[in-house]
Amino acid sequence: MGKLEGKVAIITGGASGIGLATVEAFVEKGVKVVLADFNEEAGKAAEMKLKDKGADVLFVKVNVADEKSVEDLVAQTVNQYGKLDILINNAGVGALAATHELTFEEYNRVISINQNGVFFGAKYAIREMLKTGGGSIVNTASILGTVGRAGAFAYNASKGAVNILTKSLALEYAKQNIRVNAVCPGYVESGMVNKEALGDFYDGLVAQHPVGRLGRPEEIAHAIIFLSENDFMTGSTLLIDGGYTAQ
Protein backbone atom coordinates (compact mmCIF):
# COMPACT_ATOMS: atom_id res chain seq x y z
CA MET A 1 0.00 0.00 0.00
CA GLY A 2 1.26 3.45 -0.89
CA LYS A 3 2.24 5.76 1.96
CA LEU A 4 0.63 9.18 1.69
CA GLU A 5 2.70 11.05 4.27
CA GLY A 6 4.82 13.76 2.65
CA LYS A 7 3.01 13.63 -0.67
CA VAL A 8 1.53 16.69 -2.39
CA ALA A 9 -2.11 16.78 -3.43
CA ILE A 10 -4.44 19.18 -5.22
CA ILE A 11 -8.12 18.94 -4.30
CA THR A 12 -10.52 21.00 -6.41
CA GLY A 13 -13.85 22.02 -4.95
CA GLY A 14 -11.98 21.78 -1.66
CA ALA A 15 -13.75 24.54 0.26
CA SER A 16 -16.90 22.62 1.17
CA GLY A 17 -18.72 19.27 1.20
CA ILE A 18 -16.88 16.22 -0.12
CA GLY A 19 -13.92 18.37 -1.14
CA LEU A 20 -13.34 19.84 2.31
CA ALA A 21 -13.81 16.45 3.97
CA THR A 22 -11.18 15.09 1.58
CA VAL A 23 -8.78 17.93 2.37
CA GLU A 24 -9.16 17.13 6.07
CA ALA A 25 -8.66 13.41 5.48
CA PHE A 26 -5.45 13.97 3.50
CA VAL A 27 -4.12 16.41 6.09
CA GLU A 28 -4.59 13.74 8.75
CA LYS A 29 -2.42 11.45 6.61
CA GLY A 30 0.40 14.01 6.56
CA VAL A 31 -0.22 15.19 2.99
CA LYS A 32 0.64 18.71 1.84
CA VAL A 33 -2.61 19.92 0.32
CA VAL A 34 -3.46 22.63 -2.18
CA LEU A 35 -7.09 23.46 -1.49
CA ALA A 36 -8.47 24.79 -4.77
CA ASP A 37 -11.89 26.35 -5.18
CA PHE A 38 -13.72 29.13 -7.03
CA ASN A 39 -15.19 30.35 -3.73
CA GLU A 40 -12.37 32.50 -2.44
CA GLU A 41 -14.01 33.46 0.86
CA ALA A 42 -14.78 29.87 1.87
CA GLY A 43 -11.42 28.64 0.60
CA LYS A 44 -9.39 31.15 2.59
CA ALA A 45 -11.47 30.45 5.70
CA ALA A 46 -10.82 26.72 5.38
CA GLU A 47 -7.11 27.35 4.77
CA MET A 48 -6.82 29.48 7.91
CA LYS A 49 -8.70 26.98 10.05
CA LEU A 50 -6.52 24.08 8.90
CA LYS A 51 -3.28 26.05 9.28
CA ASP A 52 -4.28 26.89 12.84
CA LYS A 53 -4.34 23.13 13.46
CA GLY A 54 -0.83 22.75 12.02
CA ALA A 55 -1.73 21.56 8.53
CA ASP A 56 0.51 22.31 5.55
CA VAL A 57 -2.20 23.65 3.25
CA LEU A 58 -2.40 26.36 0.58
CA PHE A 59 -5.54 27.88 -0.90
CA VAL A 60 -5.54 28.70 -4.62
CA LYS A 61 -8.55 30.16 -6.40
CA VAL A 62 -9.37 28.22 -9.57
CA ASN A 63 -11.99 28.09 -12.27
CA VAL A 64 -11.78 24.49 -13.43
CA ALA A 65 -13.70 25.34 -16.61
CA ASP A 66 -10.85 27.63 -17.69
CA GLU A 67 -7.75 25.82 -18.98
CA LYS A 68 -5.32 28.62 -18.12
CA SER A 69 -6.66 28.79 -14.56
CA VAL A 70 -6.05 25.04 -14.09
CA GLU A 71 -2.60 25.27 -15.67
CA ASP A 72 -1.75 28.08 -13.23
CA LEU A 73 -3.08 26.01 -10.30
CA VAL A 74 -0.71 23.16 -11.10
CA ALA A 75 2.17 25.58 -11.65
CA GLN A 76 1.56 27.26 -8.27
CA THR A 77 1.46 23.86 -6.60
CA VAL A 78 4.80 22.80 -8.07
CA ASN A 79 6.30 26.20 -7.29
CA GLN A 80 5.21 25.88 -3.65
CA TYR A 81 5.96 22.20 -3.02
CA GLY A 82 8.27 21.10 -5.83
CA LYS A 83 6.05 18.32 -7.20
CA LEU A 84 2.53 16.96 -7.57
CA ASP A 85 1.71 13.42 -6.48
CA ILE A 86 -2.09 13.37 -6.25
CA LEU A 87 -4.93 15.16 -8.01
CA ILE A 88 -8.51 14.97 -6.80
CA ASN A 89 -10.77 16.33 -9.55
CA ASN A 90 -13.73 17.04 -7.30
CA ALA A 91 -15.18 20.40 -8.39
CA GLY A 92 -18.61 20.10 -9.95
CA VAL A 93 -22.06 21.60 -10.39
CA GLY A 94 -25.55 20.23 -10.93
CA ALA A 95 -28.52 21.35 -12.98
CA LEU A 96 -32.11 20.16 -12.83
CA ALA A 97 -34.28 21.07 -15.81
CA ALA A 98 -36.51 19.43 -18.38
CA THR A 99 -34.30 18.75 -21.39
CA HIS A 100 -36.65 20.50 -23.84
CA GLU A 101 -36.32 23.64 -21.72
CA LEU A 102 -32.57 23.36 -21.08
CA THR A 103 -30.58 26.14 -22.73
CA PHE A 104 -27.24 25.46 -24.35
CA GLU A 105 -25.65 27.88 -21.89
CA GLU A 106 -26.99 25.88 -18.93
CA TYR A 107 -25.95 22.59 -20.50
CA ASN A 108 -22.53 23.87 -21.48
CA ARG A 109 -21.82 25.24 -17.98
CA VAL A 110 -22.30 21.77 -16.48
CA ILE A 111 -20.17 20.11 -19.17
CA SER A 112 -17.45 22.77 -18.88
CA ILE A 113 -17.05 22.35 -15.14
CA ASN A 114 -17.79 18.66 -14.61
CA GLN A 115 -16.21 17.19 -17.75
CA ASN A 116 -13.79 19.73 -19.21
CA GLY A 117 -12.50 20.48 -15.72
CA VAL A 118 -11.45 16.85 -15.32
CA PHE A 119 -9.67 16.98 -18.69
CA PHE A 120 -7.77 20.16 -17.81
CA GLY A 121 -6.81 18.85 -14.37
CA ALA A 122 -5.60 15.52 -15.70
CA LYS A 123 -3.71 17.12 -18.59
CA TYR A 124 -1.55 19.38 -16.44
CA ALA A 125 -1.23 17.02 -13.47
CA ILE A 126 -0.03 14.18 -15.70
CA ARG A 127 2.65 16.42 -17.20
CA GLU A 128 4.12 16.84 -13.71
CA MET A 129 3.61 13.22 -12.68
CA LEU A 130 5.52 12.02 -15.72
CA LYS A 131 8.53 13.99 -14.46
CA THR A 132 8.54 12.30 -11.05
CA GLY A 133 7.74 8.68 -11.90
CA GLY A 134 4.00 8.50 -11.35
CA GLY A 135 1.05 9.61 -9.30
CA SER A 136 -2.63 9.16 -8.57
CA ILE A 137 -5.72 10.89 -9.93
CA VAL A 138 -9.17 10.42 -8.43
CA ASN A 139 -12.15 11.93 -10.21
CA THR A 140 -15.47 12.59 -8.47
CA ALA A 141 -18.16 11.15 -10.71
CA SER A 142 -21.62 10.16 -9.41
CA ILE A 143 -24.24 7.44 -9.35
CA LEU A 144 -25.75 9.57 -12.12
CA GLY A 145 -22.84 8.61 -14.31
CA THR A 146 -24.07 5.02 -14.05
CA VAL A 147 -27.87 5.37 -14.00
CA GLY A 148 -30.15 8.00 -15.48
CA ARG A 149 -32.40 10.48 -13.73
CA ALA A 150 -35.19 12.48 -15.32
CA GLY A 151 -34.38 16.17 -15.44
CA ALA A 152 -30.64 15.66 -15.01
CA PHE A 153 -29.65 15.34 -18.67
CA ALA A 154 -26.55 17.57 -18.53
CA TYR A 155 -25.36 16.18 -15.20
CA ASN A 156 -25.90 12.58 -16.37
CA ALA A 157 -23.93 13.32 -19.54
CA SER A 158 -21.03 14.94 -17.70
CA LYS A 159 -20.67 12.24 -15.03
CA GLY A 160 -21.02 9.41 -17.53
CA ALA A 161 -18.17 11.02 -19.43
CA VAL A 162 -16.08 11.23 -16.25
CA ASN A 163 -16.50 7.49 -15.69
CA ILE A 164 -15.34 6.49 -19.16
CA LEU A 165 -12.52 9.02 -19.44
CA THR A 166 -11.27 7.69 -16.08
CA LYS A 167 -10.90 4.25 -17.66
CA SER A 168 -9.30 5.69 -20.78
CA LEU A 169 -6.70 7.64 -18.80
CA ALA A 170 -5.98 4.63 -16.59
CA LEU A 171 -5.14 2.52 -19.63
CA GLU A 172 -3.14 5.26 -21.32
CA TYR A 173 -0.82 5.92 -18.38
CA ALA A 174 -0.69 2.60 -16.51
CA LYS A 175 2.84 1.87 -17.70
CA GLN A 176 3.95 5.30 -16.50
CA ASN A 177 2.79 4.44 -12.96
CA ILE A 178 -0.05 6.96 -13.04
CA ARG A 179 -3.22 5.48 -11.60
CA VAL A 180 -6.63 6.97 -12.41
CA ASN A 181 -9.84 6.06 -10.56
CA ALA A 182 -13.21 7.60 -9.81
CA VAL A 183 -15.58 7.71 -6.87
CA CYS A 184 -19.31 7.62 -7.64
CA PRO A 185 -21.22 8.92 -4.63
CA GLY A 186 -24.91 8.59 -4.02
CA TYR A 187 -26.72 11.60 -2.60
CA VAL A 188 -24.63 13.14 0.17
CA GLU A 189 -25.63 15.48 2.99
CA SER A 190 -24.44 19.00 2.25
CA GLY A 191 -25.35 22.65 2.62
CA MET A 192 -27.90 22.28 -0.16
CA VAL A 193 -28.94 18.64 0.35
CA ASN A 194 -30.53 18.35 3.78
CA LYS A 195 -33.94 18.07 5.40
CA GLU A 196 -34.23 21.79 6.12
CA ALA A 197 -33.42 22.84 2.56
CA LEU A 198 -35.39 20.19 0.67
CA GLY A 199 -38.37 19.38 2.88
CA ASP A 200 -40.44 16.44 1.62
CA PHE A 201 -38.14 16.00 -1.40
CA TYR A 202 -35.38 15.06 1.05
CA ASP A 203 -37.46 12.16 2.37
CA GLY A 204 -37.89 10.92 -1.19
CA LEU A 205 -34.14 10.93 -1.74
CA VAL A 206 -33.55 9.02 1.48
CA ALA A 207 -36.13 6.41 0.43
CA GLN A 208 -34.13 5.70 -2.73
CA HIS A 209 -31.13 4.56 -0.67
CA PRO A 210 -31.66 1.06 0.79
CA VAL A 211 -29.55 1.86 3.86
CA GLY A 212 -32.19 4.44 4.83
CA ARG A 213 -30.08 7.58 4.83
CA LEU A 214 -27.92 9.78 2.65
CA GLY A 215 -24.16 9.62 2.61
CA ARG A 216 -21.80 11.77 4.64
CA PRO A 217 -18.91 13.73 3.07
CA GLU A 218 -16.35 11.92 5.21
CA GLU A 219 -17.53 8.56 3.86
CA ILE A 220 -16.70 9.66 0.32
CA ALA A 221 -13.39 11.11 1.50
CA HIS A 222 -12.54 7.73 3.03
CA ALA A 223 -13.03 6.09 -0.36
CA ILE A 224 -10.82 8.69 -2.03
CA ILE A 225 -8.07 7.96 0.50
CA PHE A 226 -8.42 4.24 -0.23
CA LEU A 227 -8.06 4.79 -3.98
CA SER A 228 -5.05 7.02 -3.40
CA GLU A 229 -3.31 4.43 -1.20
CA ASN A 230 -4.05 1.20 -3.07
CA ASP A 231 -1.35 0.78 -5.71
CA PHE A 232 -3.17 -2.06 -7.50
CA MET A 233 -6.29 -0.05 -8.29
CA THR A 234 -6.61 1.81 -11.57
CA GLY A 235 -9.47 2.28 -13.99
CA SER A 236 -12.05 1.66 -11.26
CA THR A 237 -15.28 3.57 -10.73
CA LEU A 238 -16.12 2.97 -7.09
CA LEU A 239 -19.78 3.30 -6.13
CA ILE A 240 -20.39 4.61 -2.60
CA ASP A 241 -24.14 4.92 -2.67
CA GLY A 242 -25.92 3.13 0.17
CA GLY A 243 -27.20 0.50 -2.27
CA TYR A 244 -28.81 3.01 -4.68
CA THR A 245 -27.51 1.36 -7.87
CA ALA A 246 -27.98 -2.21 -6.60
CA GLN A 247 -31.74 -1.93 -7.13
UniProtKB/TrEMBL annotation:
Single GO term (MF): oxidoreductase activity
Biological process annotations from GO: bile acid metabolic process
Family: Belongs to the short-chain dehydrogenases/reductases (SDR) family.
Protein name: SDR family oxidoreductase
InterPro entries per record: NAD(P)-bd_dom_sf, Sc_DH/Rdtase_CS, SDR_fam
Superkingdom of this protein's organism: Bacteria
Keywords: Oxidoreductase
